[in-house]
Amino acid sequence: MKTRNDAPVDRGWLVGVIFFILGLGTLLPWNFFMTATMYFQDRLNTSEWVNGTVTARKEYYFNNWMTLLSQLPLLLFTFLNSFLYQRISEKMRITGSLVCILLLFILTAGLVKTPVENTDTFFSITMATIWFINSFGAVLQGSLFGLVGMLPQKYSAVFMSGQGLAGTFAALAMLLSIYSEAGKETAALGYFITPCVGTLITLLSYILLPHLEFAQFYFNKSKNYEPEPNHELNHELLLKESDETVALGNGKQNGHANGSLPNGTPVHSGHKEAFITLESARTPDKKLSVREVFKKIWVMAFCVTFVFIVTLSVFPAITVEVKTQSEGTKWEVYFIPVCCFLFFNIMDWVGRTITTVVQWPPKESRLFPVLVVSRVIFIPLIMLCNIRNHYYLPALFPQDAAFSIIMLLFSGTSGYCVCLSMSYAPQLVAPKDAETAGALMTFFLALGLSLGAALSFPLRVLV
User: Fold this and answer.
1) What are the TM regions of this chain, as residue ranges (predicted)?
2) Neighbours of 47 (CB within 10 A)
3) Are 97 and 137 in contact (CB under 8 A)?
4) Residue 186 pLDDT > 60, yes or no?
């Protein structure tokens, strides 16, 4: 069997490219639905004819419900992960999820050209699609995290980089559909066909992966892994045992024939202690319980939860309601795609990337949770921007530039703090408990997303 030093070469870095595509594919569903918010609002916010009279349009709070129904499946399937992973094969989970996501995107694209007179029906179909597409996305994401964990660590960074650029990809796709100056329906159809093609490429990439020698080597090695014995440690313990045996012999020669050393210790204790120590060296250390691991990482768990509570409470539910000062101009249709979605996704990715160079404050510092909590200031700042249909709060920051600067700082600090929290947590425990720490952090990440989405409802009413 090949050792790590004999591992085959990743020719053309093809496995790295595939995992970048897989990372991109995991977050395409959420980002494409989120970026298409203007399309859905146009279809929902229309006046209805009832008995020959026009009724006032109904407020669906689409962005709030979309955010909530996108994040709840992630929280739910975090609980179900162990059940699913033990009973359903990895190939079935990943392939099945991608096929179902592809079919749901095809349904969404088909609805673009399908007239649905009852907006309640369209809203219900869209919400159900969002729920199921994100449920399959949660299974897909968890399964691929386990798969990439079998490879060298740099491939995990490539996978997460793909995830980080998924939002930027969706925002650019929306900008291209607007720039094409096609009709609204044609532009929306082209927009939703894009993730269909992206998901299909992701599926084909996954099917190709097991046939590459580099991936095969690490996947097989992980399945057939057996811990190697620590020969050096065993040798030292055997020498210690041998020395104690000599000491025992000297004890007998010095007249301690009753089986005890000068201090009264039974003569066989040296053998017993050496035997116990040797056996413990042969047996891997026992992992800490989930509760014990949580006690060590609870600060980072709080940080990742709080970061996402703040971020999802206003993005995108409230940020998409901000309007430009240049209403009636061509810039109006580009304002939200650029200043809200493109700025957020680029700066979120930049914030995550900066952590590979700078990690401040350090994990032991009390300043880090203070920095995380201080991000709460972005909630009132965004709520005081130029939001349409605001009832209670004034627009203290009506300028486009002010909103843009707030969004840049808001998203950059979000990506930075999230990445630091997720990378610090495994460093606070022993390597044997890093997997448990990662699973706990994933749960609290999902919890923060869900709580933030729920908080967006009362915040939107307060505006």
Assistant:
1) 12-40, 60-84, 96-116, 122-148, 155-176, 188-209, 297-319, 331-347, 367-389, 401-425, 437-457
2) 11
3) yes
4) yes
